[in-house]
Specification:
This protein is mainly alpha-helical and 162 residues long. The chain folds into 2 domains: 3-106, no CATH class; 110-161. Helix content is 66%, strand content 0%. Helix 4 (57-79) packs parallel to helix 6 and helix 7 (110-126) packs antiparallel against helix 8 (135-151). The two termini are 40 Å apart.
Length: 162
């Protein structure tokens, strides 16, 4: 991404995570951080090797880029959470640690996710057109529930919605 496109994109701020809708927030944050070319620092907990005694310009550049990506990724995550959540993550050393901490706190284990999915499927099946004023509202509500199920990592076919 060239400097002009990068600077104009970075003026778009990520959504603030306040503890609700974690799955939606992670999808947005991953896309945002990929666009800024810093997602690698969140995904991998890589160490930045020390420079050799007589480093080449290329080695210096690579080390600086890796360091910068880690710092930017951490700053981006700090900026994208509420002050309440920030106080819980401020001592974590890397974007990788922050991401995994948030994941462990807000996704829950497989059993909890399974229970959430069962509740959402039940909610989906209990939807009635009578309670909602328009077909558009009804379809939006059904899609919303289906997408929540998908964000929890479970398959929900479009054919069930129709």
């Amino acid at each position: 991404m060239d400097a002009i496109a990068s600077s104009s994109f970075s003026s778009i701020s990520p959504s603030i995570f306040d503890g609700d809708n974690y799955q939606v927030w992670t999808v947005r944050m991953e896309a945002y951080m990929e666009a800024l070319d810093i997602w690698e620092a969140v995904e991998e907990d890589y160490e930045i090797p020390a420079l050799p005694n007589n480093p080449t310009m290329a080695q210096i550049k690579v080390q600086k880029e890796k360091k910068t990506k880690k710092i930017k990724a951490k700053a981006c995550l700090f900026a994208a959470v509420s002050s309440t959540i920030f106080t819980r993550i401020l001592t974590l050393r890397s974007a990788y640690e922050i991401w995994n901490y948030l994941k462990s706190k807000y996704v829950g284990d497989e059993r909890i996710r399974g229970m959430r999915v069962l509740n959402l499927i039940r909610e989906f099946e209990l939807q009635k057109m009578k309670e909602i004023k328009s077909i558009k509202e009804y379809s939006v509500r059904l899609l919303d529930i289906a997408n929540q199920i998908r964000l929890l990592g479970f398959e929900f076919k479009d054919s069930r919605i129709v």
